[in-house]
Write a structure and sequence with these properties.
It is a single chain. The protein contains 3 helices and 17 strands. By secondary structure, it is mainly β. The strands form 2 sheets. Strands 3, 4, 6, 7, 9, 10, 12, 15, 16 and 17 form a 10-stranded mixed beta sheet that branches. A hairpin with a 2-residue loop joins strand 1 and strand 2. The longest helix has 20 residues. It is globular, with a radius of gyration of 19 Å. Required for maturation of urease via the functional incorporation of the urease nickel metallocenter. This is Urease accessory protein UreD. InterPro entries: UreD.
């Protein structure tokens, strides 16, 4: 290292990952894999046959601290299909001054499918976490998006008492905005305890589908699954189907999300659920 260079742990890690996929010879295959800094993917897998490429996104430092900026860029070619997950929880540590950021951009060509299903995100008290996503769908491209966010560490008796959680998401289809969500919660925000907010719960989960609307049998299945997993509900909106869950356990949130995914994937994608092996480790 240059004697006059600022060490990365002082300014934060600047990490980038670019992935592209193509449909080639009857299989969905990676066509580009580039990274800078501590963000990468392991070897790709085809556990459910050549149609779907599974990738595990790895952040080797194991946690995200003040000044860190993770940037992910995804490009899915026509008729390609990728399922992306992570090996474990993403931990966002306390920041004294500079926030930590994660930005995701994705472009899906006609016929492409992206399943974005990382494991839980844990925001330590004092974290200043700022996440954003911008996703563009062309034609009949389909998106399945899931996240689980844990505020504080209830098992350790830690509430999310200071810091902030900011999240901004945009979803476009053929140049038209079909989903836009913007959230900012401070550690002492009244919405954390308000009935119209998190109602005192520390874990929030989302599952979003952008594709053909669910028919009534599939909606009935989704409602039944939500009813079985506590404080959860789902609804069909113009262009997107959305499900939410509130509770106090990351494990329960993931169980709800994966139960919905298992029940509805045959309706969404005409294929049974095939869980990534990393979810069982």
């Amino acid at each position: 290292m240059n004697a006059h260079a600022t060490p990365p742990w002082h300014t934060g890690w600047q990490a980038e990952l670019e992935l592209a996929y193509q449909r080639r010879d009857g299989a969905s295959l990676p066509s580009r894999r580039w990274h800078r800094g501590p963000l990468r993917v392991q070897k790709h897998f085809h556990p459910e046959g050549p149609d779907v490429c599974h990738h595990i996104i790895v952040h080797p430092p194991g946690g995200i601290a003040g000044g860190d900026h993770l940037r992910l860029d995804l490009d899915l070619g026509p008729d390609s299909h990728a399922l992306l997950t992570s090996p474990g929880a993403a931990k966002w540590y306390r920041c004294q001054h500079t926030p930590a950021q994660q930005t995701l951009s994705a472009r899906l060509a006609a016929g492409a499918v992206l399943e974005w299903l990382p494991q839980e995100t844990i925001l330590f008290s004092g974290a200043r976490a700022e996440l954003s996503a911008h996703i563009e769908l062309a034609g009949d491209a389909r998106l399945l998006w899931g996240d689980v966010v844990c505020l504080g560490r209830p098992a350790a008796g830690e509430r999310f008492a200071c810091g902030h959680w900011a999240q901004h998401s945009e979803l476009w289809r053929n140049g038209q905005l079909i989903w836009h969500e913007q959230l900012w919660l401070d550690g002492d925000d009244p919405l954390l305890d308000a009935a119209a907010g998190l109602a005192g719960h520390g874990v929030a989960a989302t599952l979003l589908w952008a594709g053909p609307e669910l028919d009534e049998p599939a909606m009935a299945l989704a409602r039944a699954c939500c009813a079985e997993h506590g404080h959860a509900a789902c609804t069909q909106l113009p262009g997107v189907w959305l499900a939410r869950w509130l509770g106090d356990s990351a494990e329960a949130a993931l169980a709800w999300q994966r139960a919905l995914w298992t029940a509805l994937r045959p309706h969404w994608l005409q294929r049974p659920a095939h869980a990534p092996r990393i979810w069982r480790t």
